[in-house]
Amino acid sequence: MTIKQIALSLAIALGLASAAAAQEGPKLYVFTSGSLGGFPKAALQMGGQGNIDWAPVSFYVLKHPKGNVIIDTGNNDKTITDPDGWWGPLAKGFGLKMTKDDAIPAQLEKIGLKTDDIKYVVVGHLHLDHGGNVSQFPNATLVAQNDELKAAWWPDVGYSLYYIPGDFADTKKMNIIRLEGDLDLFDDGSVRVMRAPGHTPRQPVRDRQIAQDGYRYSDQRRGLSEREPRQEPDSADSGHVQSERCLSQLPARSAGSRRQQCPDLLRARSGGFQGHQARARVL
């Protein structure tokens, strides 16, 4: 084989590889940003009994042909070395555990990404275990409900406990898509951000569907409303009822009741998802 033939063969192989990469569809990766544990369930759920012994704090990265998306950002990496200094008494109260391997850059490196490779940061809300590392993505576009931004930047008296200003101090310098409802992020139905008030007043959920057999998840926790008065479950104005209606409108991924389709657990077919966790609860 001549040098010219070898060069031609390599060019063809590289061309095929590039074409295959270009046609590669979205991939969802699930990571943990440390964990919490050793606190009463009642701290997170009205009427909860017993303790939560261990709960991973999750965030998600979606590799998408139109731009990489990180969904939630976990606990601030500064808690790895200074948990009490950053979270104060909440670090011990919630049994915070973080290691250097939980850091955002270390996690992204596992899938060949850096913080600068993220195009969109979508946050469910900005509590300390969701928006902790938003400031690590200064060049990304932040996607959040406008009311949630206001709740974090200027919290009402008595509702600032789980918002740490240092977590999102730089957000006012970022490009922000301020939502007043739902958003089709890429205008193709592949990633939809939907308002689902409850845990905080304007918390969104994200619906991610691949072809006709995708997966969806929600970080909406049932049974807890920190900013709204407690209401009966059948109240038409209840944030949780509104959220349930929102989720009930999503196309069912598999057979089963709608009640089974809407828990706040990531649901994924093993063949349609990549990552080091197959299922994670989002706090």
Structure description:
The protein is of the alpha/beta class and 283 residues long. It has a single domain (25-272), classed as Metallo-beta-lactamase, Chain A. The chain is built from 7 helices and 12 strands. The protein has helices at residues 3-23, 83-87, 90-93, 104-109, 146-153, 239-248, 258-261, and strands at residues 27-36, 39-40, 51-52, 55-63, 68-71, 118-122, 141-145, 175-179, 183-184, 191-195, 204-208, 215-217. Strands 1-4-5-6-7-8 form a 6-stranded mixed sheet. Strand 4 and strand 5 form a beta hairpin. The model is unreliable at 208-240 and 253-283 (pLDDT under 50).
SSE arrangement:
Layout lengths: L2 H21 L3 E10 L2 E2 L10 E2 L2 E9 L4 E4 L11 H5 L2 H4 L10 H6 L8 E5 L18 E5 H8 L21 E5 L3 E2 L6 E5 L8 E5 L6 E3 L21 H10 L9 H4 L22
Strand order of the largest sheet: 1-4-5-6-7-8
Q: Which oligomerization state do the chains in this entry correspond to?
A: single chain
Number of strands: 12
Strand content: 15-25%
Kindly provide the name of the CATH class: Alpha Beta
Please mark out the parts with pLDDT under 50 across 5 or more consecutive residues, or reply none.
208-240, 253-283
Q: What structural class results from the helix and strand content?
A: alpha/beta
